[in-house]
Amino acid sequence: MRIWKKPARPRSGSSLIFRNLLAGTTLFLVTMLGVTLALTLRFSISAVQEKIEGNLKSTATALAESPLVLQALREGACSPSLISYLDGLVAQTPDLDIVTIADTNSIRLYHVVHERIGLHFVGDDQGRALEGEAYFSDAVGTMGLQRRFLHPVWEEDDRVIGFVIASATMDSLRELRTNITMAYAKLAALLLFAALLLSWAMTLFFQKMLLGFGPEELVRSYLTQNEMLNNLSEGVISAEQLNGTRHIVSALRASTHEFMNKLQVISGLLQMDRVQDALGYIGTISTSHTKASAQILQYIKNPNVAALLLAKLNHMKEQDIELTLLKNSFLPEHSLYLSTADLVTVTGNLLENAIEAIGATCKENSRSIVVQITEDDTGLMLMVSDSGVGIPPELLERIYDWEFSTKAHEGRGTGMALVKDIVARRHGSIEVDSEVDTGTTFTLIFGEKRQRM
pLDDT tens digits for 178-200? Predict the structure, then answer.
């Protein structure tokens, strides 16, 4: 007899796995955050630049078409009211630092600094404006390097009689870019803190979900469980046909096998450094398993029968069979009509036969088993319906014979003899409704309460 040893607690290796998981998750989030912020910062600065240039262009165009500006160029001087208006325009318009009006000799009729009115225009980029072209230009004026929009002023006879300039200093533009960058830096710091907090919380969540074990510990846990099941199987072989233990053992084996497959997927993804894929896979199988298991635990209070159904559920998932427990099912912890051993034997054999029947069919679009177990003061009803190969009418009377097996032909097992024996001993009834290539439904009803010692 092999000796079963208690599973070891998680060791430092699992801590390293989760530290690597935390580091990988954090690196991924920080990288995505950095790329996103860099792209949005570049877009924001570009959008602001375009907005400023649009304001400069619209201001220069509007002034070049103003009758007051045309009159000033005709008279060679700006009126006090025009000067006052232009002073207010510069003071109240964001990102507009300079407005200049000059004649064809490049003499200023207006400048935001009044002392420069009457002086020669500075920058030497006005030539194209005097030729009738409107355009942007970067040039150094009396207030430093500027981003300018120059627009010609036309006389009624289509002669250019001067030009208008709307400018923003490069210092103002740099300050604006700096302010935007600082705002994004503060946002980045806040989001980085949130990302670190989120990755830490996710790591704790999945560490708790995996009970603190890393891939190596999970594999060792599986091997220990498998050895324990082997020992259990060796100790109960002589009694498994009478008490239904065979079904629990085989179902647990199938459950363990499916669990091992999932562990191998998780271990492989982690070894490939595909942390996010591993997290997504864990979340998917956790959600799927929790939803299916919840109904069984909600309606089936007998722990042995619930354990059998949960293990069979995992076995069916491996074979792509859908198990449905009807919502009107209810089985108390202690049945009034059957012992726990009889319940396990009956339920296990019916489910095993249903699984074999579906396995023997060639249909791929319908692989389902429906179960109802309902007990109240009037009786116990147990129904198992499958979408398998069905039973030919000529074999229906023989399926309860001890020596008879239809597995070679229709996928049914010999366990129905045990089921029939329990039904007879407990004075119950059994009905079977079967159609070839459609499926089979077994309905068992027990109305006589058992005597408790």
Answer: 777 777 677 777 777 776 777 67
Q: Which helix H or strand E contains 111, and what residues bound it?
A: strand 108-111
The length of the chain is 453
Task: Give, as one character, the DSSP assignment of residue 158.
Answer: S
Q: Which of 97-106, 244-253, 358-367, 394-403 has the highest mean pLDDT?
A: 97-106
Cβ atoms 345, 419 nearer than 8 A = yes
**Alpha helix segments (H runs only) across 300-365:** 303-318, 340-359
The vertex-426 CA angle with 424 and 431, nearest 5°, equals 55
C-alpha 1, offset from chain centre: 47
Identity of the residue numbered 289: H
Please tell me the predicted confidence (pLDDT) of residue 217: 61
Contact 321, 371 (CB under 8 A): no
Angle at 104 between CA 100 and CA 107, to 5 degrees: 50
User: Using CA atoms, how far apart are residues 247 and 63, in angstroms rounded to an integer?
Assistant: 93
In eight-state DSSP terms, residue 397 is: G
In whole angstroms, what is the distance from residue 354 CA to residue 229 CA? Answer: 24
Q: Residue 14 is which amino acid?
A: S
Nearest-10 Cα torsion for 181, 187, 190, 191: -110
Residue type, 58: S
Long-range contacts of 261-267 (CB under 8 A, 24+ apart): 261/318, 263/215, 263/218, 263/219, 263/222, 266/215, 266/218, 267/215, 267/218, 267/219
Please give the Cα distance from 137 to 412 (Å, whole number). 89
In one-letter notation, the amino acid at residue 270 is L
Q: How confident is the model at residue 31 (pLDDT cuts 50, 70, 90)?
A: confident
Return d(Cα 346, Cα 383) in angstroms, integer: 11
**C-beta separation of 287 from 209 below 8 A:** no
Residue 237, pLDDT score: 41
Contact of 213 with 14, CB cutoff 8 Å: yes
Residue 240 pLDDT more than 60?
no
Cα gap 375→423, rounded to integer Å: 16
Residue type at position 8: A
Distances in whole angstroms, Cα of residue 453 to Cα of each of 13, 198, 331, 333, 339: 53, 57, 21, 17, 12
CA nearest neighbour of 86 among 116, 110, 119, 62: 110
Determine how many CB atoms are found less than 10 A away from the CB of residue 129: 26
**98-103 and 160-169: which strand pairing?**
antiparallel
Q: Do 151 and 64 contact (CB within 8 A), yes or no?
A: yes
In the block, tokens 């299916």 appear at: 292
